[in-house]
Structures are given as C-alpha cells and as structure tokens.
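Person: Show me a sequence?

Helper:
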Amino acid sequence: MPSSILVMELVWQYEGTLDRFTGDGMMIFFNDPIPVPDAELRALKMTIAMRDAFEELRQLWNHRGYELGCCWGVASGYATIGVIGFEQRLDYTAMGTVTNLAARLCDAGADTEILVTKRLMVKVENQFVVGDRGDITLKGNPRPTGIVNLIGLQL
C-alpha cells in the first residue's frame, strides 16, 4: 500500500485534517473543520500509529537497499485556519506560530522520534510514555522550548 494512502487512512481514523504533503513532509491539524473533544490525544495516538506503520514500510525498503528515515513534530495552540490566498490561488490551510513550532520539532528530531512540546503533554498527563529531551532553542523561537520524545501509550 502506498504510504500516502496509509497516512490518509490514519488521518481519517483519528478525525484529523490533512492540510498538505510537501516534499518529504506533511501537515495535519485537528479541530477544524469539525471540532473534536480530545484533539491532542487523537493527534498523539495517530502519530504513534504512523510511526509504527512507517517502521513496517522502512523494513521493506531497507530490504531493497534504500534507507528511509522519518520523524514527527507535534504541538498545540492557536492557528489561523481557513481559506487563505487570493482569487487565482486559494488553499484551506493553517498558519501561525504553532504550525512553525511543529515544523521546527520535525527538524530537531532524530530518526523515528516523535517530538512533542511539554506544554501539550500536560493536557494528556499520564497517558503516554515519554523520554525527556530537555529544553531546546528552536529556530524562530527566542526562548527554549520544553520537549519530550513520545515513546508510546502508557499501559
């Protein structure tokens, strides 16, 4: 199954919105156009499912001689969401510091890591196993951001 179909199935299952695929990345957001009561929880569970599914694909490609890597960044906050652009080019998208933060987390992550802000993790306390990554300064953010590596669901 192509990875794009796999991603779409997981986005659909967890009721997210796929904004776009871009090069080697994608942006997914929650709570628009349809609000969900537990957006942070859904986002984290979906990302774990994506990482697990990606691992299966990675093994297939490694067997063929290709090395694939992937990491994820998850943040929560306010964004401007809607149809943005001008008459000749309109996109339904999300913009704001939270989308930039998630992208910077991706940039800072190592292969297979899911980097999440500690601020988000407070909202889903004790439901996940995490590894503390400390406070790191990310491009575009003047202050260090508390980061964890999301390992899995708490059993």
Observations:
- The chain has a mean pLDDT of 92.
- The chain has one domain: 3-153.
